Amino acid sequence: MLPALFVFLALTLGFAVADLTDIRWLGGLVMIGIGAFAVFSMNRVAGVLRTLIGVVVVVLGFILSHALGSILGSYGALFLVASVCAVAIYLLIVVKVSTRN
After folding, report:
1. What is the dihedral of CA 47, 95, 85, 55, to 10 degrees?
2. pLDDT tens for each residue of 13-66
3. Which residue, of 25, 55, 71, 76, is most buried by count of CB atoms within 10 Å of its CB?
């Protein structure tokens, strides 16, 4: 479950830092830093393939959040995408872990 939490935190804190400081690259750095922990911890429990799928899901979610921003507002799009991405990561881990037993 830790990787799903890291994904949620990476997206939300990265955006918050960029928004509050008006320094986009700093928010991106926060997002990438926390995201690296998510990738590392997910790889340990779910394997490389599921981790790569998770990375693609999060990147697509990040791109989609920009399009949704005009509909839901910045924070609405952020929380929707961060939640969906975190659930997707959680499911990728749970399915992998449950098939081991």
Report:
1. 20
2. 999 999 999 999 999 999 999 999 999 999 999 999 999 999 999 999 999 999
3. 55
| Residues ≥6 apart with Cβ < 8 Å to 55 | 39
Is the confidence at residue 96, as pLDDT, over 70?
A: no
Tell me how many domains the chain contains.
1
Find the length of the chain.
101
Which residue range forms the structural domain that includes residue 15? 2-100
Q: Both tokens of residue 88?
A: 């997707």
